[in-house]
Amino acid sequence: MLIGFVVLYLVISIGIGLYAATRVHNARDYITAGQSLPMIVVVAMVFATWFGAETVLGIPATFLDENLGGTISDPFGASLALILFGLLFARPLYRMKLVTLGDFYRERYNRPVEIAMSLAIAASYLGWVSAQVTALGLVFNVLSDGVITAPQGILIGASVVALYTLFGGMWSVALTTFVQMTIIVAGLLWISYLVGSMPEVGGVAPVVAHAFAAGKFEFWPPLEWAAIVTFVAGLLTMGLGSVPQQDVFQRANSSRNETIAVWGTVIGGALYLLFAAVPLYLTYSATLVDPVMTTALLAEDAQRVLPTFVKTHLPLAAQIVFYGALLSVIMSTASGTLLAPSVTISENIIKEMMPRHRLSQKKLLFITRAVVVAFAVLVVLYALWSRESETSIHQMVENAYKVTLATAFVPLVAGIYWKRANSAGAGWSIVLGFATWIAMEFIAPEGVLPPQFWGFFASLAGMVAGSLLSSHKSSPA
Q1: Is 192 helix (H, G, I), strand (E, B) or coil?
Q2: I need a surface site. Which of 51, 82, 157, 454 has the fewest CB within 10 A?
Q3: In this structure, what CATH number is given to the domain that contains residue 9?
Q4: Calpha distance 388→216 (Å, rounded)
Q5: What is the pLDDT of residue 475?
């Protein structure tokens, strides 16, 4: 019966996505939903897109293995990125009437910068989307008691997400996300109430007290240089590296006006940080209800603790709601993050290579959908490889933003807030940032200062030196 309800939920999600396709008439509708979305839908998209597999499965697993400080990158860094984007970037970018974030790099700098940044942004999504489909594989494996293997679950989950994203685009993301956010919030709050009513748990306060006594609320690093740098790097890799991302821009850019673009993103980011505490509470409660099960799963795969606990200790109705909510968070994130790189590749790379007079909106829409399929295939391959290399969902998400921190963040900030930034500076910023980051991945991958931060500082130096030197050379004597 549980599997039957899950299948029904998947069918309904596909149905909503196909209905959304009726509102898509051209590529702009597909990418921005006609810039017509109200505040509540934008907040829902921002919240539900980031409230994904890593929030329900990855972050709680890290919390159990380490402590609250281990989650500094997500949700703390992720929330910081959303709030920063809303306050500092949403308004100026919305006013530029862009279709993609790659368009900004072309208009502010030049075509080579646009191509380089579009490739970097698209590449950063491979790990993030793969984390979502990896989680879908895990869910189907737990639900079926092993009948469906994790690799088979990855294929099934990726196919469902690709199907409704393929036809509806941003309209599909908006409509399905709004439904999914309702399920997420209501479902997890109700399950938290059920878990809190268990005699072994006794409510929120005893769980917090137990976790505090166990040292799980240790957050700040020791007063040692290496520990402090690692802590700050964890916060800023996602906090800054997630800012130049197409999915964040796309949600703000789909807003009805710039005020919604700003505050929809900020409110969504704040809600994400607050609600990320719910899976932590549920997962830690599992250690009190069934310590034998959680100890065994911690040794095997901490990401399985919460779904296994729900399946073995909660009534059928709660299982249906939980797995519906879990599928909601994963699919809402996966659909949005599958669409973002596909749009970037089609709009900023393929489209600009084709003759304008031969490229109609209908052809561009077809190209974008073809890229969605191609990127979905890459995601499946990367997810299967990551599973073999035992990369956790949390690690996959953390790794996704290294490339954008090292290459894309500085040109974005300088392009908006520094008038002297120019194409030469952007070019040097990208080249030095990328080269330094890759070099340090080989020279000192486990160094005190992470490789992506060497790249970030090199990117900053390249922007300043390149812009000032080129402007000096071009100025009259």
Answers
A1: helix
A2: 454
A3: 1.20.1730.10
A4: 30
A5: 46
For 220, the 3-state DSSP assignment is coil
Report the distance separating Cα 257 and Cα 174, nearest Å.
16
CB 328 within 8 A of CB 49: no
Both tokens of 231, joined, read 């802590």
The answer to whether residues 201 and 285 touch, using CB atoms and an 8 Å cutoff, is: yes
Tell me how many domains the chain contains.
1
Show the tokens assigned to 460.
């900053």
Specify if 376 maps to a domain: yes
pLDDT score at 300: 81
Count of C-beta atoms within a 10 Å radius of residue 229: 16
Q: What region, left, alpha or beta, does residue 326 occupy, with left being phi > 0 and alpha being psi -120 to 50 degrees?
A: alpha
Question: Is residue 399 within 8 Å of 448, Cβ to Cβ?
Answer: no
Lookup result for tokens 């921190």: 405
Q: For the chain, first and last CA: distance in Å? A: 80
Reading the block at residue 337, the tokens are 């993050």
Place of tokens 């921005």: 32
* Distinct helix (H) and strand (E) counts, the chain: 25, 0
Entry field: residues in the chain: 477
Contacts of 94 (CB under 8 A, 6+ apart): 252, 253, 255, 258, 261
Residue that the structure tokens 């869910």 belong to: 139
Most confident segment among 40-44, 229-233, 389-393, 460-464? 460-464
- Structural domain that includes position 121: 2-387
231 inside domain: yes
318-354: pLDDT as tens digits? 888 888 777 777 777 777 778 888 888 988 888 877 7
In a domain, 440, yes or no: no
| Cis peptide bond prior to 291, omega within 30° of 0 | no
Domain assignment present for residue 419? The answer is no
β-sheet bridge partners, residue 255: 37
